[in-house]
Design a protein that fits this description.
Largest sheet: 2 strands, antiparallel
Helix content: 55-70%
CATH superfamily: Cobalamin adenosyltransferase-like
Strand content: under 5%
Order of helices and strands: EEHHHHH
Radius of gyration: 18 Å
CATH architecture: Up-down Bundle
Strand order of the largest sheet: 1-2
Number of helices: 5
CATH topology: Hypothetical Protein Ta1238, Chain: A
CATH class: Mainly Alpha
């Protein structure tokens, strides 16, 4: 099987249930999910099988399911489910218990992995916005939006916990630097 179909040369691509233009908001949403997954692969490559390694691999697989749900024009199958959100919430609660969250805004950074997790978190927020736009014009799996919202929370607490575990001094937003 050849990887190229040449359909993309005409500005179109295949999705589940049909063909759409490459500038369709659906393709934007799928593309951002792919970008998140690629960045997550980069993080995983630096993790050396630490305790979050397997969870991040699970999330990579879930992101493929999100992409498949977004690619399904007719919204026939819901691959991401409420149980996936519940599992993320349990993980967030466990991390937050061990490393209580700050009451101030933090500046993204710290260790290289934590900084990359913040990049992923911001990409997920971007994906949320595009998915909301898609949901305004097309039926989608209604679980995707809350899943992405919870996923960005997960990456925030994971970055926070990695920095705390490594005793990295966390930088907080300094409102005194704002000049009006």
């Amino acid at each position: 099987m050849k990887i190229y179909t040449k359909n993309g040369d005409k500005g179109i691509t295949s999705v589940i249930g049909g063909i759409v233009r490459k500038d369709d908001v659906r393709i934007d949403a799928i593309g951002i999910i792919d970008e998140i997954n690629c960045n997550l692969g980069l993080v995983i490559s630096d993790m050396n099988n630490n305790k979050f390694y397997n969870k991040l691999l699970e999330i990579q697989n879930e992101l493929f399911l999100v992409g498949a749900d977004l690619a399904d024009i007719n919204c026939n199958k819901h691959r991401i489910q409420m149980k996936d959100i519940s599992i993320l919430e349990q993980e967030i609660d466990q991390i937050s218990e061990k490393y209580p969250l700050p009451e101030k805004f933090i500046l993204p950074g710290g260790t290289k992995i934590a900084a990359q997790l913040h990049v992923i978190r911001s990409l997920i927020r971007n994906a949320e916005r595009v998915v909301v736009s898609l949901s305004n014009i097309s039926k989608i799996n209604p679980v995707i939006q809350p899943y992405l919202n919870r996923l960005s929370d997960y990456f925030f607490v994971l970055a926070w916990s990695i920095n705390k575990k490594e005793n990295i001094e966390i930088q907080f937003f300094n409102e005194n630097v704002i000049k009006m």
